[in-house]
Amino acid sequence: MNDECRKIRSFSEGVGLSLKSTAMKRRQFFNTPFSDLDNKSAQHSKNERVLSTGLTSYSQPLTISDAHHLLRRITFAPTMAMSNNLVGKSAEEAVDLLFGDSVLPLDNKPNWIDEVTENPKGADIFTQNGIYSKWSSQFSNFQSWWIGRMLSEQFPSAEKLTMFWSSHFTSEFVFDESYIPPQQLFRQYLVFHNDKLGSFKKMVFDITLDGAMLVYLGGNLNVKGKPNENYARELLELFTTGIGQYTEGDVQEAARILTGWRVGMFNDEPEFNGYYASYFSPDRHDVGAKQFMGVTIPARDGDSNTEYLVKTQEIQKLVDIIFERRADAIANFMARKLYRYFVYSNPKISDNTIIQELATEFKNNNFEIKPTLKKLLSSEHFYDSENRGIQIKTPLEFIVGLGRQLGISLSDPTGQARTLEQSIMDPPNVAGWDGYRTWISTKTYPARRKYAADTINSLSNKNLIDFAKQFPDYMNAEKLTSAIELFLLPKEISSDRHKLYRDDLLLQKQPDYEWEAMVNAETPAARGIKALLLAIIKAPDFQLC
Predict the structure, then answer these.
(1) What are phi and psi of 301, to 5 degrees?
(2) Could you please report the per-residue DSSP string of 216-232?
């Protein structure tokens, strides 16, 4: 059992023990960081793991275990069909198949994405409440639509990457007693969907003028004489360079560069490029010269104060300057973020050598995302046994993964994601979710186990038998138990635990030669499969990927 598994077990045991404790003790217990539990954990205080593997390409043809591992990280969970498709391929071939050659068009879009209302802030209270209620319903529908795509996607796989970028360039549906219309958030989803494997520089440019971002970080309010610095600051601090790579003067000048952009969202207000598209308002733009990161952007006169020229000569220039003057900082900042999302999320333990190599790769590829991420996901380091089963599943990985692996529709996955504290496109703040061990708490851990148990208990005998039949040699109790363990758990388990799963649970203490008859009779086999699944979802390592 690895460190993270031990630490999560402390939660599962703590939930039971806490029933005998006071409320204060429960809170203190779960708010206390995990303690080091063995010598290996103590060594982590050095803040760096030492692994012998690097970014050299993984040379072995993928096994079923390798395929499961890759799919746990680049999708929301493996399916047997997808894993079987990857077995025998090289790591690079597998990643190419998952990334695809182009951005596929979306089908079955929500039917409300082009609806427009009046501005609720100028309406009477009844109209205002009606608009907010409608938006809330549409936003929930949008979340459900996106989760549906996460559940059903095969090759290529886009939604985990899209979710990564949505978690990086954050926006909130509800913030500061304001709303971003779901129509606007849907268009932001399209930015991430379309740019997810392209140029990071282009994505930064696109999101800078994205309507939802203009609303969320004050761009809509950014005018000459009273520049709003919110987006300028987060562009540098959270989205590109990280802290310590810019001055307050840089923030102030960037805010001046960004003045004048608005978005038309309501039928009683101007819209010049179509509803929900950003547009330029010349009279709101600061035409004076700006000095950003030591580079001068010249002043402009009225004839040159146009949408096209300001977009190309100031907005694009702003992005170019950041990437030219802070190339190393951006490369390191984003390499670390990609590493934490796809390999290991512990913010206190860094594989600095690998991250630096990845940063160099990102910079040398002119900040193209696809070759950089391919290098990481097809590397020996990625497939190292030390990097398997060390990530705590996000709520979406837990919920969507359950549905994908069981091959079923889920009961209210959108509401459950909110319960587990990961509401899509509605993070707690502009920095997004803290992640890692904060995903597990006194509230969320019992809720995870209950949701998984309720889901499995709702399965019919046919569901359970169909689940077993997707594995080769499902008529062999030994091989079936091993295959299910490999599919649902991230690392090999002990022989004693395997024996318990096989003999006491799957076989229900019947001799193994009875398994074929149990399957043919369906009900006895279904009872054993359900017992095995219920035991696995209660195990601490089921929370890992």
Answers:
(1) -95, 180
(2) HTTGGG-BTTB---HHH
- List the one residue out of 512, 515, 505, 514 whose CA is nearest residue 537: 505
What are the φ and ψ backbone dihedral angles of 464, each rounded to 5 degrees?
-70, -45
CA nearest neighbour of 116 among 54, 184, 174: 184
3-state SS string over 302-346? Answer: HHHCCHHHHHHHHHHHHHHHHHHHCHHHHHHHHHHHHHHHHCCCC
* 4 pLDDT above the threshold of 70: no
Torsion of CA 534, 540, 541, 545, to 10 degrees: 100
Count other Cβ atoms within 10 Å, centred on residue 420. 23
- Tell me how far CA of residue 436 lies from CA of 71, 353, 365, 392, in angstroms: 19, 21, 29, 6
Predicted confidence band of residue 347 (pLDDT cuts 50, 70, 90)? confident
Alpha-helix residue ranges (DSSP H) falling in 169-288: 182-195, 200-208, 211-216, 230-234, 248-257
Give backbone dihedrals phi and psi of 223, rounded to 5 degrees, phi first: -130, 160
What is the pLDDT averaged over residues 36-44? 36
Q: What are the backbone angles phi and psi of residue 261, rounded to the nearest 5°?
A: -100, 135
Angle subtended at Cα 486 by Cα 482 and Cα 489, rounded to the nearest 5 degrees:
125
CB distance 437 to 41 below 8 Å: no
- Single out the residue of 532, 508, 535, 536 nearest to residue 521, CA to CA: 508
353/465 Cα distance (integer angstroms): 47
Polymer length in residues for the chain:
545
How many other CB atoms are found less than 10 A from the CB of residue 233? 20
For every residue of 396-419, which 3-state class applies, written as one string? Answer: HHHHHHHHHHHCCCCCCHHHHHHH
What amino acid is encoded at 90 in this protein?
S
Instruction: Measure Cα distances from 357 to 98, 165, 222 in Å.
Output: 23, 22, 39
**Amino acid letter, 489:** L
The contacts of residue 153 (CB under 8 Å, 6+ apart) are 75, 159
Q: Is the peptide bond preceding residue 490 cis, with omega within 30 degrees of 0?
A: no
Residues 180 and 210 sit within 8 Å (Cβ to Cβ): no
Q: How confident is the model at residue 9 (pLDDT cuts 50, 70, 90)?
A: low
SS3 1: coil
Cα angle, residue 55 at apex, residues 51 and 61 outer, rounded to 5°: 100
CA distance 421 to 164: 16
Pairing of strands 174-175, 178-179: antiparallel
Place of tokens 């609806």: 115
User: Residue 392 contacts by C-beta under 8 Å, 6 or more apart in sequence?
Assistant: 4, 8, 345, 436, 437, 439, 440, 543, 544
- Residues near 129 by beta carbon (within 8 Å), at least 6 away in sequence: none
Plot region of 290 (φ>0 → left; ψ -120 to 50 → alpha; else → beta): beta
Q: Which residues 6+ apart lie within 8 Å of 85 measured at CB? A: 97, 155
**Residue written as token pair 């182009």:** 102
Model pLDDT for residues 432-443, shown as the tens digit of each residue: 999 999 999 999
* Ramachandran quadrant class, 32 (left: phi over 0; alpha: psi -120 to 50; beta: rest): beta
